[in-house]
Structures are given as structure tokens and as C-alpha cells.
Amino acid sequence: xxxxxxxxxxCGQLAIFEEHLYSEQLQVLLxxxxxxxxxxxxxxxxxxxxxxxxxxxxxxxxVEAILTLEGxxxxxLGPQTPVPDIQLAMRAH
Length: 93
Prior knowledge:
The protein is mostly helical. The protein is about 55% helix and about 10% strand. It contains 4 helices and 2 strands; from the N terminus they run ααβαβα. β1, α3 and β2 form a beta-alpha-beta unit. The protein is flat, with a radius of gyration of 15 Å.
């Protein structure tokens, strides 16, 4: 579905606001689903982010969903985290 929405936007069949609305709704749906998953007490902890310059987060959120289903605890920092801050977050968590 993501590919179809992206292709429709690229062809001018969807306005930017429509693509953004789809993306936001998908993120809400994934976050609700992730929040309802049971995570084992001693689950591995994984830090998730994107490097500066990558602002898209749906792929990151999909990875979080998959890792959580596999029993990991994910700490999501969101997009475009500077490398020094990633290192600080790793030490802190």
C-alpha cells in the first residue's frame, strides 16, 4: 500500500497533504499496535533512529513493530539523530 500511495503521489494523483495524511494515520495505527504487544521482562533493548538527512520514519516504525513482535524492547528516538547523540543515548540506556 505504501508503494501505491507513493506512486500515486509521484504521478500527481494524490496531493502532498493526502500522502502526509496517509503516512500519519499509518504511524498512529502502528504505534497503537506496538503499544498493545507484550514484551518479555528480560527482552533485548534496541535503539532505533535515522541518521541526519533521513526524515522518513515509517520504515523505522515497521522495524520497531517487527522487533517488538520478536520480543525486543525498542527505544525510538525518531528521525535525524546526530551521531554524537546516538552515542549518548546508547550510554544512557
